[in-house]
Amino acid sequence: MMRQDTEAHMALYRFAHALASLDTLDSLYSMMIDTDMHVWVVLHDLSRPQEEAVFDAQIDTDPDFLLTIHFTDSPDTVPANAEKVDLRLVV
To answer: Which of 37, 47, 62, 86 is deepest in the core (most CB within 10 A)?
Structure first.
């Protein structure tokens, strides 16, 4: 049986892979808080179709983490100690 944080990181990788095709994806951050994976998705465009694509990717990959979506220009929306996911590694 896998550790809970390992499962969360695997789910994050699947989620990042699903998001990699979004043209509006700017960056993706994650942080484990206790046993919960928190994820911040930063998009260039917060239109409804883009947000729905993010939620669809979450549903398709079945991750069990807390998701927050932000617009690129939002200052200081991601905690400083959150880890940025290298999207080049998930394509």
So the answer is: 37
* pLDDT single digits (tens) 49-86: 999 999 999 988 877 788 999 887 676 788 888 999 98
Distance from C-alpha of 38 to C-alpha of 56, rounded to nearest angstrom: 17
Query: How many whole angstroms separate alpha carbon 26 and alpha carbon 10?
Result: 21
12 touches 65 (CB < 8 A):
yes
Owner of token pair 């929306």: 77
Q: Mind giving me the DSSP string for 48-89?
A: HHHHHHHHHHHHHH---EEEEEEETT-TT-S-TTSEEP-GGG
CA distances in angstroms from 78 to 28, 48, 68, 75, listed in the order given: 10, 21, 9, 8
Q: Phi first, then psi: what are they for 29, rounded to 5°?
A: -125, 155
Q: What is the pLDDT of residues 27-50, one digit of tens each?
A: 999 999 888 889 999 998 888 999
